[in-house]
Hints:
Blueprint: E1 3-4, E2 6-8, E3 11-13, E4 17-23, E5 26-36, H1 39-57, H2 61-77, H3 79-90, H4 94-116, E6 121-124, E7 131-138, E8 141-145, H5 153-164, E9 168-172, H6 178-190, E10 198-200, H7 205-213, E11 220-224, H8 227-239, E12 243-247, E13 253-256, H9 262-274, E14 286-290, H10 291-307, H11 326-341, E15 345-348, E16 365-368, H12 375-378, E17 385-391, H13 394-402, E18 406-407, E19 409-413, H14 417-426, E20 431-434, E21 450-451, E22 454-455, H15 465-468, E23 469-476
Bound molecules: 2-aminohexanedioic acid.
Amino acid sequence: MTVHQNFIGGDWTGGQEAGDNINPSDTGDVVGRYARATRQQAEEAIAAARAAFPAWARSGIQQRHDILAKVAAEILARKEELGGLLAREEGKTLPEAIGEVARAGQIFDFFAGEVLRLAGEKIASTRPGVEVEVTREPVGVIGIITPWNFPIAIPAWKIAPALAYGNCVVFKPADLVPGSAWALADIIIRAGVPAGVFNLVMGRGSVVGEAMLNDDRIDAITFTGSVGTGKKVAAASVERMRKFQLEMGGKNPLVVLDDADLDIAVDCAVNGAFFSTGQRCTASSRLVVTEGIHDRFVAALTERLKGLVVDDARKSGTQIGPVVDQSQLDQDNSYIEIGKSEGANLVWGGERLNRETPGFFLQPALFTETSSQMRINREEIFGPVASVMRVKNYEEALEAANDTPFGLSSGICTTSLKHATHYRRNAEAGMVMVNLPTAGVDYHVPFGGRKGSSYGPREQGRYAAEFYTTVKTAYTLP
Ligand code: UN1
């Protein structure tokens, strides 16, 4: 089997070792073999990015626009094929995977446009005759470290703005799902980025990630992944006084009030908690339900869960694909046991399922009679497991929704303008959803959270410029 190589300083180069990319719907199916970079190769990539930076920072906006637009066009033209690869390596359903690929293409398209809209400000000085000009400049070499759950969209929403604003990139995708990342890298490279501007270093966090964290030649690191690794990125970055941006966990609430439209509330819960196998940092893992609608909501949701088709990600009709791998499945199972031992009531699911092929299939699980103090309501599980909390009224619902160390996305289902408005203003989260699932966001508006979920400037949309550029204030006496 051919080994998909790393791309360093303008050349495809093999790693010391390579790993198999396994299909979680069928563990006998090897998606491909992918090189794992050594520490030295990671350092070569950083050096190449450094060397390429001065020229790229001064490159014309037309060149950068054209490269990004070309990447966007190829991703969109190949979305079915790339979606198939993504579903095969990560396990989200084919429609979800194709949607994710399209999102990646749209992100490149958005930032291709942003290149042409780069602007500064001219401001009057307090000193007569002096001119003040505020402009944005690229930051330098950006280290990009991405998770396995969005194998192409998250790389796209970090790489596209990095390149758009004139930075060089060292990109380390998740070791578990290098396939979509490699395909994206191949598209970017063929679109004509100059040597050294974009580097792909696949491999382990303990080797490649560590090398990136500990290298002074990286000016900024953007990371999406676990809280534990996020803290390491933060510590290493503070030590070097480098810019960093973290997107970590979530324990997102979906509040359902007595006056909610029951069908909308159940749709939001099924989509938000269980689609993409619950493996989204925006997943609604806590369903906070007022007592007047509680029993009807639980009954309707349980009925929907019974009918969900859990099967091979690429099979037509599948609604929930497999869990990504054995270790994530172990984590999901251990939290299901923790929930039971904490006294929560498992009303549905949590069983390992057998399908035609050996895969990590798990029946979506729903707990009821849970409370804010239970570990299943405080810690991110990252699987198809959700819990219902029964509350008396809106005030208790808001309090429970905010009672979490995280603050990424927060949802409410209600027909009351008063409660929707109050919730929008008082939810302690970076994103609020009214009568919509907590997960599944637009690509052209800011994305990010508060509290333990995020650190640093927002991602996506025009707000991405805050991280990927640095501001210069120039005073001139003409
Ligand atoms: C979405 O819900 O559409 O890792 C995006 C994650 C997030 C992305 C979620 N950074 O799940």
